[in-house]
Amino acid sequence: MKNINDMSRKELEKVPYRSSWDEEIRCNSLIILPSKVSSYNIILYKIKYWLSNHIKFIRRIEIYSIPGVHDSGYRCMDFIAVKDNVPICRLSGYSDVIHIDGIGGYGYCWTKKYRTVPKVVPPSGWNMDCLLNSGLLRIWPSGKEIICGIALSSFEIYAVEKGEEKTSG
To answer: 44 and 114, same structural domain?
Structure first.
């Protein structure tokens, strides 16, 4: 595969998905790949949303079938795992939220490490830049690796020390 700095968005969109939705992936950085949503579908979403608030027989659930739009009303994102500036795989596609260092920000396997909600969590030093050719955003933790969670509505990523093993189930 090519270096991510030389790839276009179309080339990055062709990166294959991970082999299993619940496979844990380790990488150096992630590229955020927002879904493409047509102007027509955005207008359709807004009309259906307005109608669901004003006409009783139109249920809110019916507006959630807009391609590329999460049921929360936000655009879906996919993520491309990258190692040494080469794409490994795509990860999700259905997430509207990314939780950096997990939901709550307590870090990887925090219940095993701290046994309770920690009062202090060591900082991970997250960074973000924008790739020249594709215009997509890339994120990574300083001097650490990323462990990517399973592909769900909310996508969790964790900064871990290089070589850190999983410490809980």
So the answer is: no
Among 26, 44, 75, residue at a domain's last position: 75
Which residues form the domain of 52?
36-75
Contact 122, 142 (CB under 8 A): no
Stated pTM of the model: 0.79
Summarised one tens digit per residue, pLDDT across range 47-100 is 888 887 887 776 665 555 777 777 777 788 889 999 999 999 998 767 888 888
Domain co-membership, 156 together with 122: yes
Structure tokens at 72: 């929360």
Sheet strand arrangement including 25-27: 25-27, 145-148, 154-160, 97-100
Dihedral through CA 48, CA 35, CA 70, CA 46, nearest 10?
-20
Asked whether 155 and 77 are in contact (CB, 8 A), the reply is yes
Question: What's the number of domains the chain is made of?
Answer: 2
